[in-house]
Specification:
Keywords: Kinase, Receptor, Transferase. The protein has one helix at about 1-15. The chain is mainly alpha-helical and about 15 residues long.
């Protein structure tokens, strides 16, 4: 779902 992809991006952004 879109939410799942958004969460994935959020995690990557947080990791950065």
């Amino acid at each position: 779902t879109v939410v799942k992809e958004t969460t994935r991006i959020a995690v990557l952004d947080s990791g950065s």
